[in-house]
Amino acid sequence: MKKDIILTGVGGQGILSIATVIGQAAIQENLYIKQAEVHGMSQRGGDVQSNLRISSSPIASDLIARGGADLVISLEPMEALRYRHYLAKDGWIVTNVTPFVNIPNYPDIEKVLDELRAMQNVILLDVDAVAKEAGNPRGSNIVLLGACSHLLGISSERFEEGIRGIFARKGEEMVEANLKAFRAGQAAAVK
Amino acid sequence: MKKKRLLLGDEAIAMGAINAGIVGVYAYPGTPSTEITEFIQNSPAAKDNNVFCRWCTNEKTAMEAALGVSYVGRRSIVCMKHVGMNVAADPFMNGAMAGANGGLIVIVADDPSMHSSQGEQDTRFYGKFALVPTLEPSNQQEAYDMMEYGFKLSEERDIPVLMRVTTRMAHSRAVVEYDDAIEPRRELCNPKNPASWILLPANARKKYPVLIDNYTHLGQVACESGYNRYFDGADKSLGIVACGIAYNYLRENVGDDCRYPVLKISQYPLPKDLVRRMAAECSTILVMEEGQPFVEEQIQGILPHGCTVKGRLTGDLPRTGELTPDCVRASLGMQPHETFAPAENVVPRPPALCQGCGHRDLYNALNRAMEKFEDHKVFSDIGCYTLGALPPFRAISSCIDMGASITMAKGAADAGLYPAVAVIGDSTFTHSGITGLLDAANCNADIVVVISDNITTGMTGGQNSAGTGKLEQICMAVGVAPEHVRVVIPLPKNMDEISRVIDEEIAYHGTSVIISRRECIQTAKRHLKNK
């Protein structure tokens, strides 16, 4: 088993918490993990990405090769496109459709979405709306995780355990809210 | 007992240092090194053991404090980003000459590709320059293991040890197996050779040949080190030297069974015997290294004619930027993976000052005050506020090194520029700005220094700032007239007042300081949340 994942979004959107849950679930599965993150200046509203690699055999590189990613998971549609050439030919893009516009020259969002829709393996989701509907408007990133969970080769139970483990210190209410967000994401992706 | 944990490279280093029984970590925040110190600050084990972990004012004070720890026989680490090493270079170079009584490891995180830096400088040159052994882990487990190894090497060879990591090592996580026990601290003891710590010329002249001999010996140690390994390969048409994390990119492409001989290097001085062996076996050597062509150039010097050396200098690998699995693949002559074309509807998204950030309000007011002067200049400095160079502000003209805003403004004023304005952050000011302000105040230079005080070290994530609560006193103490130390609050509603204060201080022909003070929006949010 090997999954090479590029997580992306805009600094502050919370891609690292998705990575943390996947990492936690992968550890429980006794998988090898490498996860390269971006810290520092680019976190200030710039584009950020994390290379997350999980595998049943040892992993050499911290970075994913171009054309090697099984998945691009993105909290922002243009950021999903930014890493398209890292995707393997049979890889999947799972992305939020709501643009995060903090630059004056953001492209026409319809063109961005058209380019995404033209991909063979793509899941487009308004994760903010799903999160709101699930009663957890701040849980967009966990919704997105739910939406791609079936592509990660790890069981839902493991992810739910991971969510419990990570949010436990914030109280049972937070755990339940995030489990709800996760399941809502799963349901929305199947639609 | 052995345990496992998912750790950043930086955190693995911190864990290794705690378990090696350090007395303290001495550091100034700098990407990508910051998380080493932060891990120790948050570690219950470090707290139980009273490990000193408060941020230092700059890298030089950090290095010197660690020299003091070493002098009395105990272990410590010093951490910084690569450009921090320039600030710490004086005590680093001379500390190497003095030696190490207690183990001392200097950890420097380089940033090839300049993700968060103004240069790509390769710290391995400092190791060779100072004649100290240098470690360059290729993975997180090695980073952890090398701490104990490094302290022993430092103590046995009576010399500080340098560890060089790069961004992808510092900021990448992997599972690390670690020991749960912390080594007991040694009793305080005097250096074996106390005279070498008094670097009078007469003493230094005696020590220098010892340092050089030691370096030769360390080269032998590097040949025998388990961190440097020679893997034989059947196809001798090419030999590959892979340093630090370049080794991972190589393995990513060729797997565990490379048909060419491979020399993995994670410890310097360069293991010359191993390189000579490769040269004897292979007609061409390809050097893969993160940063500058440090090994490539040295190998060219070691080898006889007839052996071709390829690497960053020859264009087989890119001359600048960090290595990737892709460029390493290309250097091996392998076909690139099949990829989708880059997408069309993508534009760059550069970082920007946060919405609600006080630097924004300061720059709006400053631009208003400065637009009265044609072709005006504002000298600035290192920090979030450097982003004021970008639209919509375009408010600053320079950013060179920590503290240069004040001294450059002074130089420009000396040369006849008016008005000469500097913008510096509070943490950068205490790091390296105070001495420059003293220079200016001593001759009452006609400059306006704006200290944009967000009460934290913002860009690296909100660490404590050494001068918080003392800035006015510091400025007055170095000789700025009290009536020209002004304080404003950068909020949109205060725009008129701030512009007026700037106008007044520009009109004053002497050294003045305007402290523009409002808490960083990020730390303010965090404080609110924690309440």
Would you kindly provide a written description of the structure presented here, covering whatever features stand out?
- The complex is a heterodimer of chains A (191) and B (531).
- With 191 residues, chain A is an alpha/beta fold.
- Chain A has a single domain (2-190), classed as Pyruvate-ferredoxin oxidoreductase, PFOR, domain III (Pyruvate-ferredoxin Oxidoreductase, domain 3).
- Chain A contains seven helices and six strands.
- Chain A has helices at residues 15-28, 77-82, 109-117, 127-133, 140-148, 156-167, 172-190, and strands at residues 2-10, 32-36, 47-55, 69-74, 87-96, 122-125.
- In chain A, strands 2-3-1-4-5-6 form a six-stranded mixed beta sheet.
- In chain A, helix 1 (15-28) packs across helix 5.
- Chain A is globular, with a radius of gyration of 16 Å.
- The two termini of chain A are 27 Å apart.
- The mean pLDDT of chain A is 94.
- Chain B is α/β, with parallel strands linked by helices and 531 residues long.
- Chain B folds into three domains: 2-224, Rossmann fold (3-Layer(aba) Sandwich), CATH 3.40.50.970; 229-331, Rossmann fold, CATH 3.40.50; 358-528, Thiamin diphosphate (ThDP)-binding fold, Pyr/PP domains (Rossmann fold).
- Chain B contains 19 helices and 19 strands.
- A six-stranded mixed beta sheet of chain B has the order 2-3-4-6-5-11, sandwiched between helices. In chain B, strands 15-14-16-17-19-18 form a six-stranded parallel beta sheet, with helices on both faces.
- In chain B, helix 10 links the parallel strand 9 and strand 10.
- In chain B, helix 1 (9-19) packs across helix 2 and helix 15 (404-414) packs parallel to helix 16 (426-442).
- The mean pLDDT of chain B is 96.
- The chains are: A alpha/beta (191), B alpha/beta (531).
- Chains A and B meet through strand 2, helix 2, strand 5 and helix 3 of A and strand 7, helix 10 and helix 13 of B.
- Strand 2 of chain A pairs antiparallel with strand 7 of chain B.
